[in-house]
Amino acid sequence: MSTITDNTSLKLEKVFTEAEDFLPLNGTDYVELYVGNAKQAAHYYKTAFGFKSVAYAGLETGIKDRTSYVIEQDKIRLVLTSPLNSEGPINDHIVKHGDGVKHVAIWVDDATKSWEETTKRGAKSYYEPKVTKDADGEVVTSAIHTYGETIHIFVERKNYNGVFMPGFKKWESHYNPSDVGLKYIDHMVGNVGWNEMNTWVDFYKNVMGFAQLVSFDDKDISTDYTALMSKVMTNGNGRIKFPINEPAEGKKKSQIEEYIDFYNGAGVQHMALATDNIIETVTALRDRGVEFLYVPENYYEDVLDRVGEIDEDLAPLKELGILIDRDDEGYLLQIFTKPVSDRPTLFYEIIQRKGAQSFGKGNFKALFEAIEREQENRGTL
Ligand code: FE2
After folding, report:
1. Other CB atoms closer than 10 Å to residue 220's CB: what's the count?
2. Cα 215 to ligand 1 centre (Å)
3. Spacing, Cα 270 to ligand 1 middle (Å)
4. How much distance in Å is there from the Cα of 282 to the middle of ligand 1?
5. Separation of 301 CA from ligand 1 center, angstroms?
6. Quick check: 82 and 67 in contact, CB under 8 A?
7. Domain spanning 8-18+180-378, CATH architecture
8. Label partner for 283 (CA 20 to 30 A): which of 99, 117, 152, 180?
9. Stretch(es) of the chain classified as CATH 3.10.180.10
10. For residue 350, which of 188, 182, 230 has the smallest C-alpha distance?
11. Separation of 334 CA from ligand 1 center, angstroms?
12. How do 76-83 and 66-73 pair as beta strands?
């Protein structure tokens, strides 16, 4: 469901022609998190992030083993799921990983073909294509494994008119906080273990037909203590971008390694949510209690020398701790939340693109130094 709003440049078109179209993808359909208490998580995402209630499944809809809340903001759809009993795969996932992303669902026109094309190229099947139906029509889904215990579900919903999926009912709530201007998922980042980045880059290249957009190495992204390597994979139309991070040797534990330790393996590190007005969005998020990484004030002393002229006043950006970076095509504004659960694992990025198609490489050093201060506070540096 996410889309690129910026003009694609010649450079991007060149990269995108490398992406193959045996697996046409319309965008992200939904992201499902397994959490310890879905009811309270849904309240948090509504209150703090401005999502709205959409659909519900649980005992009242005939589901015996779990409860799921579906929430949306513009094109971003999250599903929050908790188990209702003491055993089973959802419990196992939560015990091992804490709250985290289980399913990254991708909207396709043909979920059967998507499964066939990916499994014949080496994807490990999670489940074969299956049809679920209710009075509103039918949905076809299929699923494959990706890094860690994360799953890609292919969702074909062209013959469905219901609120979300068969098994869900509309979630009517009297509590409907206003949105904060979040529009779509710009990119979603996976952290993988030592020496695993290229395995997953090859997976997205060969199994999913993605192309590599930008690459960094540990010389690009390092501070005194932290180092990482990152490669960005994109599908053919650019609507889905998955950067893959791998830790690199630093003097002390890198934030990627810390993630891997607390998540007990590879998983989704952050989702970047796009806005058309980052100052308004971040002001609203802060007012509602979302915590962002602290950026040292001295970051702003020379930032305009680095990035040149920007449309925004610097004062509110500095006040909010919003970072700025520029590439050949324009600039971008971005900010990162602190982890949203007690384990230092999943966090969110808020991003506004003003032409730039990159991911804030120039900010990585300033950002990592900010993250290291947090790690130091947790005693995990
Ligand atoms: Fe990001």
Report:
1. 15
2. 13
3. 7
4. 16
5. 23
6. yes
7. Roll (3.10)
8. 99
9. 8-18+180-378, 27-170
10. 182
11. 8
12. antiparallel
| CA–CA gap between residue 344 and residue 375 (Å, rounded) | 9
Query: Which pLDDT belongs to residue 18?
Result: 61
Q: How far is the CA of 39 from the centre of ligand 1 (A)?
A: 27
- Structure tokens of 233? 């994979």
Name the pairing type of β-strands 125-134 and 182-191.
unpaired
Lowest mean pLDDT among 99-113, 198-212, 213-227, 348-362: 213-227
CA of 188 to the centre of ligand 1 (A): 7
- The model's pTM is 0.91
Q: What is the pLDDT of residues 256-303, one digit of tens each?
A: 899 999 999 999 999 999 999 999 999 999 999 999 988 877 788 888
169 alpha carbon to ligand 1 midpoint, in Å? 33
Residue 23 CA to ligand 1 centre (angstroms): 24
CB atoms within 10 A of CB 101: 25
- Considering only residues 132 and 7, tell me which one the structure prediction assigns the higher pLDDT: 132
| Helical spans, DSSP H, in the chain | 10-18, 38-49, 89-97, 111-119, 197-202, 255-263, 278-287, 303-307, 314-320, 364-378
Assign domain 27-170 to a CATH class.
alpha beta
The residues pairing with 330 across neighbouring beta strands, listed in sequence order, are: 327
C-alpha 149/C-alpha 265 separation (Å) is 8
Tell how far the Cα of 187 is from the centroid of ligand 1, in angstroms: 7
Confidence band, pLDDT 50/70/90 cuts, at residue 19: low
Q: Which residues contact 169 (CB under 8 A, 6 or more apart)?
A: 55, 56, 57, 60, 61, 163
**Triad 176, 180, 181: Cα angle to 5°:** 120
SS3 label, residue 4? coil
What's the 353 CA to ligand 1 centre distance in angstroms? Answer: 12
Residue 82 to residue 67: CA distance in whole angstroms: 6
Residue 151, pLDDT score: 98
The string of pLDDT tens digits covering residues 23-45 is: 999 999 999 999 999 999 999 99
